[in-house]
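Q: What structure does this chain adopt?
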Amino acid sequence: MVPSSGGKDSAFVAHELKSKYKMNPLTVTWSPLKYTDIGWENLVNFNKSGFDVILGMANGQTVRKLCKDAMIEMGDPFQPFIYGQVLFPIKIATKFNIKLVFSGENAEAEYGGNIESWNKKGLDIEEYEKIWFSKYSLKYWMDKGYSRNDLNLFEGPEIEEVKKKNIKRYFYGYFRNWSNHSNFYYASKNTGFKPNTVRTEGTYTKYSSIDDKLDTFHHWFALIKFGHGRCTSNAAREVREGFITREEAIALVKKYDNEFPIKYFNEFLDFTRISEHNFWEIANKWRNESIWIKKNEKVLKKGEEFQKKTILS
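A:
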């Protein structure tokens, strides 16, 4: 099994397993919070290129409510997608007795995260809550009033059942020289993957995580919590891979890292059913005061000489 959105990375994994290693992977897609046109087109093209796809799409009202509540409680409106992306494939693997699951890269190692996970070839299901859910389990939301029926499609199988069936989930990037660039060209050639026509807000790339209109708010909240945004992650990787210099990366970060994702802002407000005023109130709650200060209605980053565009008001 390969959890796949039809994006360049998961398409590369699925296609190489099939063509090079003669496997027959079932692919499982967890629906984005709000599909982009290019995201849906890439999933359809991936399916047409020769893969069975099981698509999971949770109750729309639950997703919208959980998106809003996760923004308030965790400072991350994208958390509902993460639950489904992580747990739904394991749920399907358990149902069909599929013992081998290949995800793409280990994000903790590629983008910076939990040090204990950097050199792991995979994660056991007991580790999901700590590494991928920031210790906010689905039980946390049940204690907040969500019913088991509300979260049924999000909920994974019992840990003991996964162990009994010996289901293993590995990072394909652990076994390969993982490269965004290489995966893009591979998927474009073999599965019909298309990049976006414009760059993604907050960075300079056109082909990474382009299937969800609300994905940019996940990265923007990370920016105000931790001080580094999507462009920092993209540029740092490309420096390590030798595609750009450190000086070029610094210039890109200064230009794009602090950009507010205005393109889908109104759709985000409509999706979460909050006002713009309430959005900024919630955002200000998550502003890291050791990094960001408000001065004359401008937001400055401590230790830096250049002023940032006003993002909190």
